[in-house]
Amino acid sequence: MAPPAQSQRSPSPSQPSGKGEVSDLKSQLRQLAGSRAPGVDDSKRELFKKVISYMTIGIDVTSVFGEMVMCSATSDIVLKKMCYLYVGNYAKVNPDLALLTINFLQRDCKDEDPMIRGLALRSLCSLRVANLVEYLVGPLASGLKDNNSYVRTVAVIGVLKLYHISASTCIDADFPLTLKHLMLDDPDPQVVANCLSALQEIWSSEASTSEEAAREREALISKPVIYHLLNRIKVFSEWAQCLVLELVAKYLPSDSNDIFDIMNLLEDRLQHANGAVVLATIKVFLHLTLSMTDVHQQVYERIKAPMLTLVSSGSPEQSYAVLSHLHLLVMRAPFIFASDYKHFYCQYNEPSYVKKLKLEMLTAVANESNTYEIVTELCEYAANVDIPIARESIRAVGKIALQQYDVNAIVDRLLQFLEMEKDYVTAEALVLVKDLLRKYPQWSHDCIAVVGSISSKNVQEPKAKAALIWMLGEYSQDMHDAPYILESLIENWDDEHSADVRLHLLTAVMKCFFKRPPETQKALGAALAAGLADFHQDVHDRALFYYRLLQYDVSVTERVVNPPKQAVSVFADTQSSEIKDRIFDEFNSLSVVYQKPSYMFTDKEHRGPFEFSDELGNLSIVAESADNGVPSQRVEANDKDLLLSTSEKEESRGTTYNGSAYSAPLYDGSSASFPAADTQSELAISSTTAAGNAPSSSLAIDDLLGLGLPATPAPAPPPPSLKLKSKAVLDPSAFQQKWRQLPISLSQEFSMSPQGVAALTTPQALLRHMQADSIYCIASGGQSPNFKFFFFAQKAEESSNFLVECIINTSTAKAQIKIKADDQSSSEAFSDVFQSALSKFGVP
Amino acid sequence: MISQFFVLSQRGDNIVFRDYRGEVQKGSAEIFFRKVKFWKEDGEEEAPPVFNVDGVNYFHVKVVGLLFVATTRVNVSPSLVLELLQRIARVIKDYLGVLNEDSLRKNFVLVYELLDEVVDFGYVQTTSTEVLKSYVFNEPIVVDAARLQPLSPASIFMQGTKRMPGTAVTKSVVANEPGGRKREEIFVDIIEKISVTFSSSGYILTSEIDGTIQMKSYLTGNPEIRLALNEDLSIGKGGRSIYDYRSSTGSGPVILDDCNFHESVRLDSFDMDRTLSLVPPDGEFPVMNYRMTQEFKPPFRINTLIEEAGPLKAEVIIKISAEFSSSITANTIVVEMPVPKYTTRVSFALDPGAVGQRTDFKEPNKKLEWGLKKIVGGSEHTLRAKLTFSQESHGNITKEVGPVNMTFTIPMYNASKLQVKYLQIAKKSSTYNPYRWVRYVTQANSYVARI
Questions:
Q1: Of the candidates A82, A312, A594, which has its C-beta nearest B210's C-beta?
Q2: Distance (Å, rounded) from C-alpha B225 to C-alpha A615?
């Protein structure tokens, strides 16, 4: 019996013919309702099927509710099931009608056939009608005690359903406790698994209001429970295994024996054909070994083969899910995967979302031994018919060139791209050559020769055009035609739609002017005139700035426009290491696929059934002997967060600031952390002092060059206007709750004084110092060079709280703070107080 | 944990729709379909299997042209959900025999019944066809498989060779045959997907075999089965030894890079005699997946020649040589090659007396396509194509064409030399002698020759 033909054509719920058919069904059902004639069940089945098929395609069949219920008095289980399905679907919107079904469902819950009991109980709990919950408690209680395991599995999930309809009814009936006992005692693995799912959901949502629930939730990851589940891991279904493994990944092992016991026990799970089981196991392995560097690395080696097997077996969708995780691991530890680069070659028929991941992996694993082959392969893709992938491939070649020491051969390839005469290839290659020159100015000679031969008419994409113009300005002394090309570009000023290109054109013509004045003078005049008349604010302002600067003093202008260059050592990473660590913490979840931590794409309550921790959740807060009544606690557990990020933090150190000296198109200055007075920038600043007060002038230049750096306030903060309460009190759970609820109102990074860094040998030292400024620590942890603190403070006159997460890296002398506040408007002021307090640390 | 599950037809109609938790709006199927159909993010033309729209995560897998979709607001394991969707499709196929839009529509009540037992309130309960049997009561309405396009991966056996009992693999696990009694039989398929990339000089750049030993059992009473593989099979790179070079000639040991096994497989004696023992559950499932990068002899050689013939013309010659035994025949071969964007016309010339071949110039995506119904081992086939251009090609024409890609299926052939030496069924009585089918097939996954 197929759904009616007309419904196949249009799934729209507002079908004109739907109504007539439904009323037809209604009368037919009515006729059959009381009938006991032989064969009546078969006719009912046909009618029921029709009703269900209408329901599926979205036709409203609520009007036959009464008839459906009347017909449900039957012993035919197929009929019953269809009726249950129907009732479950419509009860929520028709609570009055739902009441009609309670009777027969309750009766069925006492049926002698366990199958019927289970089905009825499931349907009863699926009604989702709040005022019917009183009818659920009795059947659920007996369902949980039923001697048939099918009924018990249904009842356990039923408890969870009840919780979602009416949490208080569920808690009052003490169901969570019953589930806890079932979880530990029931012989049926699926009952146990369902208890675990239900309890995780219930206790996670209760934990914010009830300390007991929070404790119970913690108890789920206690050693006895974990071992109880782990010892039976093989009797669970593969899905339940995933559930248990997710839980185990949260477990904090007591010692290394504990870790090795668990890993040995789970070793064979890595050979499972179900990718979900394997990934869940890998998560356990990775998390358990976080603090054991060498073992952690062995884990990477161990999981390589199983992951590659999963990537190449199974459907493309499954393999994509695994590949995303492999991608994450490759990015974290490229050197471990360097010899496996051939696995990341793209295959002919792969979708582009897979190819993209593979290209990034190829880029990451490139090292001295495999670069030649990888780049050769990438060059094949560059000629590919798939243009987006061809572009990505060229970018990948460029990235490899930027991360390698021996770029000789790669530069040649890039230059070959420029000769391929395909628009998009030329465009991508130009952008890359520009980046390459910023890092390796020594290659300028070869590159310029080729770039000079490119006709600017063939370059249309703004990014590429900007790159070309930047090179024209920067290397105008080596490029014979530079002034004339710039001139012709300026002639077409009005046709240039991209403001970015016009900005670069201004700067380039300025640079060119100082290198080849007579040839450029005319073009410069035209450019400044066009710039001053430009409707785009930034272009206008920059033109005006250059104009006035030239008026003021030409030699100063030259120092501003053409300062001595410093090669870029490392380009800024687009994603902060903190975000990457977050994603790693959320291994085996959507965060990995989206490459975003969960807070960026889900609401708090949907972070996942296993999401226990949020900031503090994972820390076991141990009360220390409080010396003056102020709660001060130490972090025990969250060190992993700090340990992990160390290496990457150090990597990104070099990326901070090279903008003012070496301005170039596309340098995304805002993504780099910007210290107000970084030592690396001194070179540029010293050369521009004539323009005024040192730091602010360097900022001005950055801004003019389109770097979009935030205008940080002057280094000396104004005297703090905010008064803090001297004896503020906030207990840890209140802190935790607030930290969860409040949004981040301010996030900053700044440098610490050398004395402060030197004084920070233990977290305790800083705690005492900050207390003097009425800023109290609630939790702290870490060891040199990474420390993490949670502070709080309260306003003197009102009970308004400030919460601060502060991460200090002593090797880079940087502090990152995140402030959350009840009164967000004062968080700026508080930040000043906090920073000035911190700046005094270590100063005698 | 999922919130909803639904199956959409190619046109976007709901075939089944089950809301487990009521957390995602009812219009999700429409939102999903529109998003997938008009996907244009990041220059990608195809929607990834997982994406997020307004806080709702959509997962989908494509099975026989249908979209199996799950939604959730929770940050779940993507592998788990995608695996689940695939598994639901498999369970449905076990029940219906044939999985396609028609059979789903005819059996949607049965499918609902299955869905109710597979997932409860978003949590997976069981996906075992075996276990589900005791909870599911609808009888499948079997659709006629012969009438339909072959769609399932197993249907590759129906083409080409007569030795295969083609209908058996489309038989429902639960439905009885018209004759009344079920036929006792078991199928073991060794399916290998091979990927080879040849350099422009014909040298093998990369090669890989991804294999599956798939089993489908119609045996009653769940007897234990022993499956013996090559005795000299070794696993892991550590097993690589002095034999490494001999292997490509065909003799010598089979060395797998890695493999994984179905839950039911017991490996007690695997290390000793390479025997897997298992009690096969009902329905279709992979006993073992394996991966091999050991060198092997590729079944086809592809030679391509391109010559410019005047300013607006070029000639392409593609020669395919089948380098396997003449007792074996490959089927459904397609060779395709992208040609320069400015190609306007192509004229083809085949070998004299060629039968069962077709040629085509796919104008919109500028591709040559050459289809061959079958290729007998040891034979050679050539295609000549004359290209006409609308503009002069600047520079090197070889940079504007290719690579050549080839797809094919070769029954009774396996590139890895992995074999099922014997399939032993624990005997219930002396008269019990079920049918056993062990079948091999090799398919091209990515078979590419660069120019």
A1: A312
A2: 52
The answer to whether A402 and A371 are in contact (CB under 8 A) is: no
B288 touches chain A (CB under 8 A): yes
Of A308, A349, A387, nearest to B258 by CB-CB distance is A308
Spatial neighbors of A790 by CB under 8 A, at least 6 apart, are A615, A616, A735, A739, A777, A778, A779, A780, A803, A804, A805, A806
Average the pLDDT over A417-432 and give the result: 82
Overall size of chain B counted in residues: 451
* Coil vs helix vs strand at A353: helix
> Is B43 an interface residue toward A (CB < 8 Å)?
yes
Is B340:B366 a contact under the CB 8 Å cutoff? yes
Q: Which residues in chain A have Cβ-Cβ distances shorter than 8 Å to B88? A: none
Alpha-helical segments (H) within A313-422: 316-332, 352-365, 371-382, 387-403, 408-419
Search chain B and give the residue with CA nearest A341: B206
**Strand pairing class (B380-389; B313-322):** antiparallel
- Contact status of B65 with chain A (Cβ, < 8 Å): no
Q: Taking 60 as the threshold, does the pLDDT of residue A229 lie above it?
A: yes
CB–CB contact A318 B82 (8 Å): yes
Burial class of residue A527 (count of CB atoms within 10 Å of its CB; 0-12, 13-18, 19+): buried
The confidence score (pLDDT) of residue A711 equals 40
Most confident of A442-456, A760-774, B20-34, B416-430: B20-34
Nearest alpha-carbon partner for A85 in B115, B90, B15, B88: B115
Assess A349–B contact: CB distance below 8 Å, yes or no: yes
Judging contacts by C-beta atoms under 8 Å, the chain B residues touching residue A345 are 197, 206
Neighbours of B167 (CB within 10 A): 13
Interface test with B, best of A14, A56, A92 (most B CBs within 10 A): A56
What pLDDT is recorded for position A622? 34
Q: How far is B383 from B370, CA to CA, in rounded Å?
A: 8
Nearest CB to A57: which of B14, B125, B395?
Answer: B14
Which residue from A minimizes the CA distance to B50? A593
β-partners of residue A633 are A623
Cβ contact, residue pair A306, B120, below 8 Å: no
pLDDT tens for residues A373-424?
999 899 888 877 778 888 889 889 888 888 776 677 777 787 788 777 778 8
CA B41 to chain centre: 28
Asked if residue B246 has pLDDT above 80, the reply is: no
Instruction: Supply the pLDDT for residue A676.
Output: 38
Concatenating the DSSP letter of every residue in B225-287 gives EEEEE-TT-EESGGG--GGGGGGGGS-S--EESEEEE-TTEE-TTHHHH-EEEE-PPSEEEEE
Contact A313 B289 (CB under 8 A): yes
Residue B54 Ramachandran class (φ > 0 left, ψ -120 to 50 alpha, else beta): left
Comparison of pLDDT for A221 and A103, the residue scoring more: A221
Contact assessment for residue A437 and residue A446, using Cβ atoms and an 8 Å cutoff: no
What DSSP assignment string belongs to A357-384?
A: HHHHHHHHH--TTTHHHHHHHHHHHHT-
Q: Is A6 helix (H, G, I), strand (E, B) or coil?
A: helix
Is B107 part of the contact surface with chain A (CB cutoff 8 Å)?
no
Q: Are the C-beta atoms of A273 and B278 separated by less than 8 Å?
A: no
If you average pLDDT over residues B118-135, what whole number do you get? Answer: 92
Q: In whole angstroms, what is the distance from residue B32 CA to residue B17 CA? A: 13
Q: Does B128 touch chain A (CB under 8 A)?
A: yes
Band (pLDDT 50/70/90 cuts) for residue A453 is: confident
Alpha helices in A622-779, H assignment, sequence order = 639-651, 682-686, 694-704, 732-741, 754-759, 763-772
Which residues touch B133 (CB under 8 Å, ≥6 apart)?
B174, B282
Nearest to A802 by CA among A764, A779, A828, A784: A828
